[in-house]
Amino acid sequence: MSKPIVVVGSYNVGLFIKGPRLPQKGETVIGDTFHEGPGGKGSNQALCTAKLGGDVHFIGCVGNDSYGQAALRLYEESGLSREFLFVDPSIHSGISFIIIDAQGDNTIAVALGANNRLAPAHIDRARPLIASSAVLACQLEGPVDTFAYALQTARHLGVTTLLDPAPAQPLPDAVYQNTDLIAPNESEAESLTGIPLKTLKNAAQAARVLLGRGVRAAIMKLGGRGCLYVTAQEERHFPAPRVDVVDVTGAGDAFAGGLMVALAEGKDIGRAIEFATCVAALSVTKIGVVNALPSREAADRLCRETFGEA
Q1: Model's pTM, two decimal places?
Q2: Which among 28, 31, 229, 291 is least buried, having the fewest CB atoms inside 10 angstroms?
Q3: The one catalytic residue among 88, 173, 253, 300
Q4: What is the arithmetic mean of pLDDT over 101-119?
């Protein structure tokens, strides 16, 4: 039986427009379709983990508006614990605007709203749960001090910590030092290290910069090139399954969800990354985020087809 998983992060409603291309500064581009759905990196990761069968608990804040009420209903329907989803009536829930081009690439703007009210006191209320967990994950859509405190708390309790450093920004040393696994994508890695991830060698160089800051392992997400796992002792490349890409929004969140479920089930890091890679690959075959998250059956099947039996 897997141990609990804790995700500390954001809930945002996503408003999606898909069109032929992304607009330039000052330009209006006519879109083809519109879609509204739940989002936020933390919530996405928690919902993915729940859909894959994980015992997941989300720590976050929403407003007491229609979007916040929708979040409460969504979590109840998804079997995701609402115990540590806090409602702040003084501010709106988080909102994301996502524009997607014909190739599935995107540009995103976020108004964090209630997510900025997440505080260390919220983490303290969940401390007994954190102590019993297999992994605690954070992103950066909210107060960095709160995420730093959550990582520090988990590390002090002997819990594996995962940081998805999005949106990328300067971080205090303590964040790196309390992170067991950091998983940036290409743009985030370049922002954090100054190294473009044009080749696997570049990715390894950027990973070692992050290791030098105190993280114990780095998973460099390389889109269609898969990912590169780097520690002080090894480098391992994991290819990405070939799929028809429709929308890459949320692929990193799907990766994190798959990774956490596999780790909580006791899989070694190699098999966990393989599973996460397949979950992420399936998520880009549909538009949207939560509705594009794959079933456990589909993820297991693609993992067997791509990497073989465990």
Answers
A1: 0.91
A2: 28
A3: 253
A4: 91
